[in-house]
Each structure stands twice: as C-alpha cells, then as structure tokens.
C-alpha cells in the first residue's frame, strides 16, 4: 500500500449499533449500504468497545486510552483530554475539524473539545440554553423560576426556540439523522481552501427509544406488530427492576424496530456517501464507520446498554475505507476501539510511536496486512450507570434484586474466548465459537483459560477497582435530556 498523505477523514459513530445486527446473517436487509461499503473496504469482525456506553467509549476513541486511564465513567464525568484529543491534534496539523453530535454526552460540556466547529444537532440553534422541556419540571415555582432566568438572558429568543424545538419538533420524524445529514452537506459545500477535513458525526439511531419511520418498520414487522409496538413500554429500568417487564413477543417486536432503526440510518448514510461521491470528496476521504457500543434487547434479561460486558454491548461493527482503494479485506484480529486514535492520526502523517497512547495500535500499518498483534481486547465498566439507588428511587416497587448490578466489571476478549470478572468476585468464561450468546459460564469447567486471561488482564491493567468520584455539574436542560435517554 502506498503511503497516503493527509487525506480527509470522515468518522461516523452509529450510537448503540451492535456487530451481531450490522454484520449478521441478514446484514444486506438491515444495512445494505453499509454491507456494500464493507465489501469494498476493511471489515473488522472482532472489534471491541472499551466501554459499554457512550461517554467512556468515545473518550477512548478520542485519546487511545482505556477508561481506567482517561477515567471518564458514571461516577466521574469530567473527562478532559485537552491538547491530546484527536480533533485537537488534527487541528494542529492543519485539518479543519467539525463535529455533528446527536448525543448530549458528546459535547464540550463533557470534555469533547478541540473542534473548530461543533454542531449540537439536538438543538435548533447553537446559541441559547440547552433546555429540554421546562414543562416537565414538577414544581410550578421551579418552572417559573427557570423560565424567568432564561427569558432575562440575551439569548432568550433562541433559548425559547430551542426549548420549543426540543419539546415538539426534534423527534417528530427521527432521532436526528435527516437533520444531521442536511447540516453536514451544508458544511461540506461551505468549505473553502485546500485544508483537509476531519468530520465527526454521532447518530443516535438506533438508541432507545426506538421509533423509526413506519416504512422502515414494515421491512421487519407485520402490520399487527407495528400496531402493537406503539403500546410497548420501552423503559429499560422498569424492565430490569421488574416494575413492568417485557414478554418474549414484545422483545421480538422491539428487535424488529431496532433493526428498522439501523435500516433507516443506513438509508441516511447512503445519502451522505452519495453526496460525497458526486461532489468528488470521497476520492480523497478515509471513512471510518463504527458502533460505540451495542444494545441489549432482552438479551441476558436486560435492556439498554448498562450493567454488563457481554458481546451484545461490546462487540461492535467497524469498517474502514481508504481513499481510492478497494481493499476488500476482512480482519479477524482482536481490535479495540481506542486503536482508532493512532490509526486516524497515522493517516494524517503522525508517527503512532510518538503518541502518548503507547498500548494502542495503528490497525492500518503500511503493507498488505491490517489489524493488530493483540492477544486479547479489554472492556471496562468502572461504575454503574445510572446509579442503583437512583433506579430504585424511580419506582414505587422494585421486585427484582438489582443490587447485583452495583459493581465494576472488566472483560478480556479473544476471538475464541471471553472472560469477565467483577468487583463482587464473580467470574464468567464463555466459548464464543460454540456459545456466541454467552449463555453457558465455563469458568469452573475451564479454570486454565480463566486463570490465563485473568492473569494477563491484571498484568496489563492492575487490580480491578470500583471507581467512585464526584458528580459533574450538568446544565439543567442537558440533565433532563440525559434522563429522558435513560442515562441518569
């Protein structure tokens, strides 16, 4: 492979997309454009997220560090990579950097700085307070107090417009993909000069709540199922606590809607790729498409993407396409998402050996070989999110014992085996070849493998700790939005 010089980079995150769905047996039905894209690029079939939810996973991709190094987790949300971050480094190399985020975690408020331009796609205007619905504040006095405070500020008109947009318009059609692709096209058209770009986009399809346009639901559900879908409670914590559990039939419907979300996002990404192709940008652009984490849709008795490190959450799709190349490569090596940090920087001409991320790997080394020399990939879950007491407080009755989720976890994954240990002294071992659903714990039957993976993890990472930490102050509107998404 000839060494590339300063290509553009498009970095697309499919928030909550799991590998088993995007790369599954029905991949061409679920994500036909991504399947086509993967067939002409490099498909990484054993890519592992370093964390099972958005904030720490993105922090690892943007720094090359593991969660235990960058310490962004549920108990400590004040992640700040400073000049080390991916966009900051690329900016110093002359790249024009822009972010289009649909997830409030991925914002300057939580340390994701360094972009020249940042578009919070959950807002109508960049200016103005980040309000969710003031009407959802329970106490009328608090409603009036907050409203008065915002209306007296210079940005009051845009604050009100943002609030109305968030409450009544933002999710009337989708979770932001249509608007985001439109904003990205406008940004691409407005570019001047010959500076290469780094464009990052986080798309919230297929994050809960699932509600894709009906024509995409019809590709996976019957009319009766679509009608029933509207009555299904998608509150993940109600299911986990036993306050309102889902049936198998309901999870079958939710799985269909989840696939429809990905199918819809695939449609929007196809429009973006076509635009870049027709405008000639794609010939000079390296494209990364990745899931930041997966999703439990009834798997392991869980919903959403918390409280475990099973492959449903940490085995994610990863596709890389290099400009003007038709690689058609499938890489089965163990790859961690933090490896994207040195990989992208190497495309821009930085020597990965010079980076302050010594244990991450450039998975696009010169030559025909791609991948890494990792024996295993590691995922970490350092603190439960949301807090177990917060979940209990949300419901009048909690029939299930959810105290078992109050723990930290670490997983070691090879292409063949998966070992999970918790601070509650639990250990699990799964044969991923014979049991990809991770349903039979072999830790007692195969102590030799469990001991080897445990020892290697502790040699590299040290002891597993339950990480505590102070809460970061979160702006009221952003906090309520994160609550609506199930994070708090």
Layout of strands and helices, then pairs:
Layout: E1 8-14, H1 19-22, H2 27-30, H3 32-39, E2 42-48, H4 54-63, H5 67-70, H6 86-92, E3 96-101, E4 117-120, H7 140-151, H8 156-169, H9 177-190, E5 197-203, H10 214-217, H11 223-229, H12 236-241, H13 248-278, E6 285-291, E7 296-297, E8 303-304, H14 311-314, E9 315-321, E10 329-331, E11 335-336, H15 340-347, E12 377-381, H16 388-394, E13 409-413, E14 417-422, E15 427-431, H17 447-461, H18 476-484
Helix pairs in contact: 9-13, 11-13
Notes on the protein architecture:
- It is globular, with a radius of gyration of 22 Å.
- The chain starts with 7 loop residues before the first strand and ends with a helix.
- The protein is an alpha/beta fold and 488 residues long.
- The strands form three sheets. Strands 1, 2, 3, 4, 5, 6, 9, 10 and 11 form a nine-stranded mixed β-sheet that branches. It has a four-stranded antiparallel β-sheet with strand order 12-13-14-15, covered by helices on one side. Strands 7-8 form a two-stranded antiparallel sheet.
- It has helices at residues 19-22, 27-30, 32-39, 54-63, 67-70, 86-92, 140-151, 156-169, 177-190, 214-217, 223-229, 236-241, 248-278, 311-314, 340-347, 388-394, 447-461, 476-484, and strands spanning 8-14, 42-48, 96-101, 117-120, 197-203, 285-291, 296-297, 303-304, 315-321, 329-331, 335-336, 377-381, 409-413, 417-422, 427-431.
């Amino acid at each position: 492979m000839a060494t590339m010089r300063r290509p553009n980079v498009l970095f697309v995150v499919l928030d909550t997309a799991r590998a088993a769905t995007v790369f599954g047996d029905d991949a061409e039905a679920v994500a036909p454009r991504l399947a086509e894209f993967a067939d002409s690029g490099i498909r990484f079939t054993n890519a592992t997220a370093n964390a099972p939810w958005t904030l720490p996973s993105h922090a690892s991709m943007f720094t090359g560090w593991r969660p235990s190094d960058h310490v962004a987790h549920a108990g400590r949300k004040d992640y700040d990579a400073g000049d080390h971050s991916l966009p900051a480094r690329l900016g110093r190399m002359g790249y024009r950097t822009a972010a289009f985020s649909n997830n409030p975690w991925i914002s300057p408020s939580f340390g994701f700085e360094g972009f020249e331009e940042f578009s919070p796609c959950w807002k109508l205007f960049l200016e103005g307070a980040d309000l969710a619905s003031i009407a959802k504040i329970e106490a009328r006095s608090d409603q009036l107090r907050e409203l008065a405070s915002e209306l007296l500020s210079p940005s009051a008109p845009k604050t009100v417009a943002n609030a109305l947009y968030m409450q009544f318009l933002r999710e009337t059609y989708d979770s932001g993909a249509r608007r985001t692709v439109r904003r990205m096209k406008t940004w691409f058209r407005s570019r001047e000069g010959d500076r290469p770009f780094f464009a990052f986009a986080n798309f919230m399809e297929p994050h809960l709540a699932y509600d894709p346009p009906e024509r995409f639901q019809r590709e996976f559900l019957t009319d009766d199922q679509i009608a029933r879908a509207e009555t299904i409670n998608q509150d993940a914590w109600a299911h986990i606590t036993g306050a309102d559990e889902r049936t198998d039939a309901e999870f079958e419907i939710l799985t269909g809607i989840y696939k429809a979300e990905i199918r819809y996002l695939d449609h929007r990404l196809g429009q973006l790729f076509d635009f870049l192709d027709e405008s000639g940008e794609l010939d000079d652009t390296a494209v990364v498409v990745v899931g930041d984490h997966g999703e439990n849709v009834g798997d392991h008795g869980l919903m959403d993407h918390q409280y475990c490190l099973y492959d449903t959450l940490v085995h994610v799709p990863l596709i890389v396409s290099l400009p003007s190349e038709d690689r058609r490569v499938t890489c089965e090596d163990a790859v961690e998402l933090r490896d994207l940090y040195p990989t992208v920087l190497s495309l821009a001409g930085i020597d990965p050996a010079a980076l302050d991320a010594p244990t991450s790997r450039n998975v696009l080394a010169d030559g025909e070989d791609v991948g890494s020399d990792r024996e295993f990939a590691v995922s970490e879950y350092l603190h439960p999110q949301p807090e177990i007491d917060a979940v209990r407080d949300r419901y009048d009755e909690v029939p299930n014992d959810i105290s078992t989720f109050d723990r930290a976890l670490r997983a070691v994954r090879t292409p063949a085996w998966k070992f999970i240990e918790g601070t509650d002294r639990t250990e699990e071992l799964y044969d991923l070849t014979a049991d990809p659903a991770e349903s039979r714990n072999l830790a007692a039957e195969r102590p030799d493998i469990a001991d080897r993976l445990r020892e290697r993890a502790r040699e590299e990472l040290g002891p597993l700790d339950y990480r505590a930490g102070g809460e970061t102050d979160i702006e009221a509107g952003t906090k309520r939005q994160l609550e609506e998404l199930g994070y708090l």
